[in-house]
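User: Before I run my own analysis I want an independent prediction to cross-check against. Here's the chain; please return only the structure tokens and, at the end, one sentence I can use as a sanity check.
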Amino acid sequence: MERTPREPHPPSRPIASPILHVLFFLSGAAALVYQVTWARSLSLVFGGTHLAVATVLAVFMGGLALGSAWLGRRADRTARPLRLYGLLELGIGVCGLGFMLFVDHATAFYAPLARAADGHPALLTAMRVALAAGAMIVPTTLMGGTLPVLSRLVVGGDDEGRGRVARLYATNTLGAVAGVLLSGFVLLGRFGVEATMMVAVGLNALVGAAALALGRRDRVSAHATVPNAIAQDRPAGPASWHERFALGGIAVSGFCALGYEVLWTRTLTMVVGTSTYSFAIMLAAFLGGITLGSFLCGAWLARRRRREDDRGPVAAFAMVEIALATAALATTALMSRLPEHALRLQGVFGGDGPAPGARNAATAIVAVAVMLVPAALSGAAFPLATSVVAAGRRRVGRAVGDVATCNTAGAILGAAAAGFVLVQAFGVERSLLLLVALQAGAGAVIAARAAGRRAAVAAAVAVFALLAALGAGGARNLLWNPRYFAIFVNNQRDLFESRERIERGLEIVDVVYYHEGVNETISVIRPLGGDQAFIVNGRSEATTVRADMQCQYALGHVPMLLHPAPERVFVLGSGSGMTLGATTLHPEARSITLAEIERDVLPATRTFAEWNHRALDNPKVRVVHDDGRNFLAVTDERFDVITADPIHPWSGGAAYLYTDEYFRLAASRLAPGGIIAQWLPLYELTPQDVGTVVRTFARNFEHVLVWLTWWDAELIGSNQPFAIDPEALARRASAGAVAADLAAVNMAGETGLLDYCLTGPRGARAFADAVDGLVNTDDNLRLEFSAPRSIGRPELMAANMAALIGYRETPPELAAAGAGGRPEAARLADRAHVLALGGALPGPEFASLSRSLAERHPDYAPGGYLRREEAAQRAAQPRPLASESFVVRSGGRHRPFQPTAVAMRPSERWSVVAVVDPDTREMLADAYLSGDPAALDLAERACATELMAALRTAWGPSFGPAPAPPDEYQAVARARDILGKAAAAWDRRSEPTAR
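Assistant: Structure tokens:
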């Protein structure tokens, strides 16, 4: 006997006043503030590895799912949902305060547990889950219940009730957008992490108190939770399949949506950068699309009257899933050329210039162009699924809760699968195509089920066949060119300003290594005969350019040589491996620990074996795949030398390696007499930013030395006086491979190395005072939010150098070892260095300073380096080698057309012979030569002669014996063709040898 549904009580008036939307808007803002700040805080406890970050995200979203399921059912049994909502908000606020207390003590009890779980990753992950759950599961469960409870409140007895739920969801998501932007652009940078958390706590308290005050007047029936028009009596069968397919479909939608977001963000960061502002903009664009979609869907649901056995929302849900997959496919196709489009847009906005607002505007447009439409369709899917499930369940709280639970569970799995499985197995693009196929298939199955069970089975089989084909397919199925992304460097727009330049780049640049890793997209490239570069997410992080090598070798050799017996060494970050390799050359080192967060960096490191002395194969080296800071936090080892060459502090998360807490941690991990070396870039930081790093470093190390290399500074610190034995230093610095490394970067010998020391503790602290350097902490995040404003400002290198050299001094311990005896040489070299970084190399004043250094102080090491840079700059200037003269017709007049072959030497082993029109400055062709420096002169002349001969020989036959000169356009086009073919024969020739 079929049970008769219990007749609901007459519904009361739904509460849909603007005040309710205001409260839920503030609640959404607070929730995203918590998510951002809690993720930051726990990354300092568990580390910044992808697994650790994903664990925190999974626990956060898992709590939301749990709250949606549990409190959705609870909502349908309460007669005072607004009071319940107020209690939930107050509970979240109280838990927010509790989280702050938890984080203050978390590392103290996590560290011994992590040491005990060393070598057992599953156990370590389980501990992280348990600790993260202890910190977040209660507040996130309460957060997950807020939407079902309020949905229970706003649904009345009319068709518009379905639209109210959608608008409520849109309001909450719009609050989340505000929370992301408010925390990312205002709160964290100005007030710090703890104060930002307190803002969220305050919002919860305000919302909770207001809801309780309103809840004293409002009361709804415990059974009148679904609109009368929705709760029509209908056969159980159709409602049952509607419900199952909607819940399954929304789970797939959540899986795909988070998968898309992870993969799109990975690709976008290559173009817009990895600063904290870029991440905030990308997340806001995604959430903004969800807001728009749910709002528009709510309007459609509110206008549409429901009919008996209405399958309209089911069909609409299926169509939205298919449309979302189509939009995601179009986005994937768009991204095949995203870098060049984005760089052009940034150029229009002045994105590479000094105005961060313009750069952020360009980032926002790029993010919206990529994410808005798919995210909007994703936002429409949630209220559609809720409408379908509510029609069968007759309990809106439970319906909303179950839809949210399935959607969130899918999102957890999607984020994890995209980061850990899909990218590793298939790469970014094929992963996107797999998600597209999965989502389109889900929509097709639901649409087919509406037409009949057999159609649904056929659609499912077709979907799985498509997924298998995409997963197994080769490069023929791909829209992207991996080489294009491998050679892309986001701060070199001129190389990607036209398709011709891009195609030429693809021809002349060797991709030595390319991999889309769990955390980053990594490539190693090398132009013909040029310098090798290590690129992470579209940003060059290390090269074999002499200036980069000087810094990387200094970070390894300087602390090792200043320490009398560096037996135990810790190196933070692998990169090119040159710093690691430098430490391995010192026989005193018995054990060297390398912490590298991204496993897929190590194959890239191996491609630099020529320069890093095959460091990864050295038996003294032990590699740990961990966040370097987290490793130091949990280990009980002590080291004689700690050296760190992290990425630039404007990159999201990297600034935590420049904070007071990190330097204090590093100091605690030094053995007595231990020395630390820290990279400090002098580019894309203001003098105050540089002073902030120096002040923060000097707070934790009593004895400080500042080394200056070409583009960078190296901070050397210890809490005991440097014990330098001049004889031992001279012997160790002149030994074999160490001497060869130092000689390669003009730092040879003990005095050559010491010549690069700028100042000691007094000068360093005086400099920090003069530029108003602040203390950078984990809480105030001064550097992370300040540094991105300096991106694209090349003038800052000279400004920083000019500010630093005013505090030159020779510390007593270095003076005793022979440093600082030539103040005039230092003064001349400092001035020349500032001129060079300011773009005045070559120039008359620089040339005069260089001559003075060569004549008066020929053995002063920085002077020798300056002369090498001067020679390289002069070689890079165009040198005419050969030319031909013709006459062409232009605008009714005759003009001379004199194509000229010029040679430029970008590096010692790489030359470009280009043919240009001197009148229009237009390049007609170019050839790339590589080889021994002594042989390149011969090769350049031979290439230029051959190019001109080819043009001269073909010119007459090309235009015949016509009495009038050829048209300029035709002549230039023909010249390009002739010269291009002749130049192509020179590209990739075997290295010329001197005769």
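Sanity check: Confidence is low (pLDDT under 50) at residues 1-13, 221-239, 989-995.
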